[in-house]
Amino acid sequence: MPTLEAILAQLNGASWFTTIDLSSAFFHVELHEDCRHLTNFFAGNGTYRFKRLPFGLCNAPDIFQEILQTKVLTECKGVLNYLDDILVFGSSKEEHDINLEKTLQRLREHNVRLNSAKCVFGSRSVKFLGFKLCGDGWRIEDDKRKALENFRRPETLSEVKSFLGLVNFTERFIHKRAEKTTKLRTLAKSGIFYWTDKENQEFEFLKTDALNSIIRLGYFDHKDRTELYVDASPIGLGAVLVQFSESKIPRIISCASKSLTPAEQRYPQTQKEALAIVWGVERFAYYLINKHFIVRTDSEANEFIFGGSHRIGRRAMTRAEAWALRLLPYHFNIERVPGCLNVADALSRLICKSQKDDAFDEDNEKHILYALDAGDMTISWTEIQAASEADEELGVSTESGTSRTCRLWGYETYPT
């Protein structure tokens, strides 16, 4: 399935939009007669089966996405889809209309039925996947903001959690929220409902001041200068991807945060700061692979760990230097920024303590695959290693000729 990053990365320069919604999406796909019996169900007066792809199958979304993306819309330009939601865009009205005409023609050729009540044609701004898209960026939908403004004071613990959940939807748009949400998060975990002036102050902050802090996120442009701000706090990591156009006006592309596991919280601060860099780069690998960028951190140690030539050596001296090896496929420079100017600082501190994120797995092989393809891959690192060892150029025979070694991206691999 396409990610939000993959969709937004293609919208830079778009100023006209159309959203198309399909009617009874999965039912457009006809099942082969040999497998229809797998959908049998009993309905009281007999056994029935589906002749078309039913809702509820675990693989139905992937099948539908593949058919629509690779067979129906494959010849169309300026079009994206996420399941039955289709977005057509163009940098001008003329380009948009050409793309829309081609898209509608392909849908007509494949007998795709539209839900006209939910379609929006030729608009400067549209709602897509819960966000509002326009020519100069994307933001949270107005109805989500209105829900925040009209939310009454919680009277139960479940309402407190409901309100915090609603606020979490706008987390990437709100900065420096950590210090002013402590009381509400503590209340949500207390098990007993109470309400004082301190909780009320935080509640009003989230309803008013936080709304004023909601910013518009920009679209990614591969030609613009790119900087990644990272920071680590005792409980979490934060990363903000920023780009600068020719006018040198910064625009935030995306924000991310991660809570540290109990084991990670016991790391020395130097290793936490290094972890923030590796995690941040891999988190935004879709944007950063095959592109030069600058990593900004307020830790001087990171300039030594990630900027020194010693990181290419066979043996890393610390856990942090071992992490540095994972970033060899990326082309970047490390530059220090004062903590007060680090926009990622707030994201690293606003982590809810109840939030449980996976540990940063040192043995995870996915970072190797990011170097090959920004999307998901079905090949494993073990298969890459075996094929590399058997290759005449990548593999280097030893004097005995009985074993081979291979160097890839600074790693040495040996056959077991």
From TrEMBL:
Keywords: Endonuclease, Hydrolase, Nuclease, Nucleotidyltransferase, RNA-directed DNA polymerase, Transferase. InterPro entries: DNA/RNA_pol_sf, Retrovirus_Pol_polyprotein, Rev_trsase/Diguanyl_cyclase, RT_dom, RT_RNaseH_2. One of its GO terms (molecular function) is endonuclease activity. Gene3D superfamilies: 3.10.20.370, 3.30.70.270. This is Reverse transcriptase domain-containing protein. The lineage of its organism: Eukaryota, Metazoa, Ecdysozoa, Arthropoda, Hexapoda.
